[in-house]
């Protein structure tokens, strides 16, 4: 059975690039356009890893991760932040919220897939 990765980004082109790379590596992909949309799609299904942007409308990535970690089912789901933000302060906020890795855009799909395979839940 393939593992499921949720990709949350307000940019359709980023979701497409990330989704293609993940599907190519054999993962099932669920997409969210922002934190609010992504939270509504969690619905108790098993998500093995979440990749989220930081700057999004409606609910930003850090708030989204904070909310996900409050849900017992997703408390231990690893999160990778995929963002144009490279400031230390933002990274620390992300870590405090529960993000395990920080990938800065523009990114190499191979670099992202390496982070995914390292962190994804069994």
Q: Could you explain how this protein is built, in words?
A:
InterPro entries: Bact_response_regulator, CheY-like_superfamily, Sig_transdc_resp-reg_receiver. The modification 4-aspartylphosphate is found at residue 53. This is Response regulator. It holds the Pfam family Response_reg. The protein is of the alpha/beta class. It is built from five helices and five strands. Strand 3 (49-52), helix 3 and strand 4 (79-83) form a beta-alpha-beta unit. It is globular, with a radius of gyration of 13 Å. Helix 1 crosses helix 5.
Brief description of this entry?
The modification 4-aspartylphosphate is found at residue 53. The protein has 122 residues and is an alpha/beta fold.
How do the strands line up in the largest sheet?
A: 2-1-3-4-5
Please report the first level of CATH classification, the CATH class: Alpha Beta
* Sheet of most strands: 5 strands, parallel
Give the end-to-end Cα distance, rounded to a whole number of Å.
11 Å
How many individual helices?
A: 5
CATH architecture classification: 3-Layer(aba) Sandwich
- Kindly provide the radius of gyration, computed on alpha-carbon positions and rounded to a whole number of angstroms: 13 Å
User: What letter string, H or E per element, gives the SSE order?
Assistant: EHEHEHEHEH
